[in-house]
Specification:
With 349 residues, the protein is of the alpha/beta class. Helix content is 44%, strand content 15%.
């Protein structure tokens, strides 16, 4: 069980906020495969408080999309409180604050991970968000382990961590890489264990290098974190949530998704995207998902290339007709293991 404020989840595996990915269609697919809680992609605070079509889409929360978190990112503390209030009013169940994004453009605008170097500003943002919505919504924070490997960076991290909990946040997600690392090198799970020991009973979610169900369960058991957030590891792989549930309950891994099961999920994802974005724009959003889904196909490179060439909804359906025809005699489906290894169906993971 994982509790975030008053919200109780039956398993401790969360779909992270994924910029450019975790829209409503992806969240619905993740839930269908066992994700108990999902976060919308990161939202700029100014976008939430500025009238327009994008704001309207961001503030759309469907009845079947709960519990859902809205993750805010920005630079000006003044903008966070009204943005958080707008998300809460729209129906987001949890308000998350991003202090972890390592993208250079974001850092250059003093957002995301940059704020780990400015504890006073970071905690001012936390205070304003808690004051704005803390009485009605849990507030959480996403962090990396610091800007870099310096002593000062580590000191800033713990200043923000302790200060955020003191201000009333319900949980903190910690990615085991520094901002400077971006996605290069391993996530420091020993640091996650240290953080969990430091905070005691307060809720810590771990992040970083979670590409398989075994990774997710192992992170919890080795570091003591209360739960994990899956990011890159669940793009094009919603089945990982079913696998996590099985391992968490002491059951064997289910077999890798068959060609027919893959087609069913991808087709449903496409239908969700068409309903959300319309038939003209849906392929633009689905192409990147198709590329990721292709990694589970026995002919993944050819399928990936086919998705890359997609321009219309009919093109996308054509890829499904050709490459996901369950009546054809396909080679065994494989399970992606980590970032590159493959495990054949039926082999131990």
């Amino acid at each position: 069980m994982l509790r975030i404020g008053p919200i109780q989840l039956d398993v401790p595996f969360v779909q992270a906020a994924l910029s450019g990915y975790s829209d409503l269609p992806m969240r619905r697919i993740a839930r269908a495969h066992g994700a108990p809680y999902t976060l919308n992609e990161v939202i700029l605070d100014k976008l939430v408080i500025t009238p327009g079509k994008k704001r309207k889409r961001v503030l759309r929360v469907e009845p079947d999309d709960h519990p859902v978190g809205g993750q805010l990112m920005g630079a000006n503390p003044d903008d966070f409180a009204p943005a958080a209030a707008a998300l809460a009013e729209a129906g987001y169940d949890i308000i998350d604050i991003n202090f972890g994004c390592p993208v250079r453009k974001v850092l250059g605008r003093c957002r995301g991970g940059f704020l780990l170097s400015e504890p006073a500003s970071a905690l001012d943002i936390v205070r304003r968000v808690v004051e704005a919505v803390g009485g009605t919504r849990p507030v959480t924070v996403k962090m990396r382990r610091g800007m870099d490997d310096s002593t000062r960076s580590e000191r800033n991290f713990f200043t923000i961590l302790d200060g955020a909990f003191a201000l009333g946040v319900s949980a903190v997600t910690v990615h085991g890489r520094s901002v400077q690392q971006r996605y290069v090198g391993p996530s420091d799970w020993l640091f996650l264990a240290r953080v969990k020991r430091h905070v005691g009973d307060r809720v810590i979610l771990g992040s970083g290098d979670l590409f398989t169900a075994d990774d997710c369960v192992r992170m919890i058991r080795e570091t003591g974190v209360d739960g994990v957030t899956l990011a890159r590891g669940c793009i094009g792989n919603p089945w990982i949530f079913e696998e996590c549930r099985a391992l968490w309950r002491g059951q064997p891994l289910p077999p890798p998704p068959s060609i027919d099961a893959q087609r069913e999920t991808i087709a449903r994802h496409l239908d969700e995207a068409v309903a959300h974005y319309g038939p003209t724009h849906a392929p633009k959003f689905m192409r990147k998902f198709g590329i990721k889904y292709a990694e589970r196909h026995p002919h993944r490179r050819a399928v990936r290339d086919a998705f890359v060439r997609v321009k219309t909804t009919d093109d996308f359906r054509g890829v499904l007709e050709r490459w996901y025809d369950a009546t054809r005699d396909w080679p065994p489906v494989v399970r992606r293991e980590g970032c590159g290894d493959l495990i054949a169906a039926g082999a131990s993971a």
